[in-house]
Amino acid sequence: MVTPSKRNADSGPGLPTGILPRARGTLRVLILLVGAGLAVTGSAQRVEISWPTPNPAWERGRAFDAWVQPTVSGQATSGLWGSVRSNGTQFHEGLDIKPMGRDRNGEATDPVMAAMDGVVRHVNTRAGDSSYGRYVVLEHPGVTPAVYTLYAHLAKVEPGLRTGLTVRRGQTLGLMGRSAGGYAIPKDRAHLHFEIGLRLTDDFSSWFTWRKFGSPNQHGLYNGMNLMGIDPRDFLERWRSRRVDNFAQFFAGRDSAVRLRVVTTRVPDFIRRYPALLRKPMDGLVGGWEVQCDVTGLPFAWTPLSPTQVAGQRAGTVEILDVDSAALRSFRGKSLIRTRGGKPTPGPDLTTMLQLVFGLRS
Asked: Considering the domain 64-240 in this protein, what is its CATH number?
């Protein structure tokens, strides 16, 4: 049975009034702990990252059609990250990289390699269990924030690769292929699906159960619905041209598509895991959050609010403060905002992010 993923999951209900549950008490956070996270943002060194396949086209500066694997449409852009499919209405959360080599039967023979030093967090060897097919997820504690990378549609996983194993940049993780659950990839379109991103919550299992998808979650925290990917090509191009040296700088330069306020004393595990995304230290008590999201709904900039700043507002209130309507209109693969009574409210994809990150259960 194929575990639901972000490719086939329904979008869920709209965000109701009284959006978030009250936290059980107020959390006090040490300034020094979070201040250390902010210090890393400014001082992080240049990331060491490599292309995850033997295809040399990107490293040689060639156009993307030299390495991208298109869909059946034949359009090279369909293998890129973004709203690139179904006339711009379908979101693709990664890069599809075509093979350099094939065997006598026409199957891909390229090894798939770790893009950075990291730790194996998930290995799925059963192709039918996910729309990713056979896939591997690495976490990269040596970079800030500690992003994940994902390698999907593998023909096979490297023997001995297991959860918790430390791997080095360039180490083989598996063989490029065309494995998938719930649909078929023909051999002439075998490819590596490659993602870079952030994990939303440690409480994914309870959210998955609450949503009642009708099948078990076979991938724990590394189910695709709990992962939000950035554009790998955008990061790599900025990194190569030295416009950024690391992921902290990349996130600091993101454009905000939606800015919102959440009234809650909760300090989500997301921001504890990625303190480099804080725009200011958490100074004592937290009464709420101002969060900036990009066009996909990824919450990339966090500003803690004091209880005084949200005085008189009901716990659980979510308020949309600002929307870049032009950016959202040009990125149709996600539904972040809906208008009700002349006011912007969270759309299905933003609702899902808020459910996962802030623990919405209503």
From this structure: 2.70.70.10
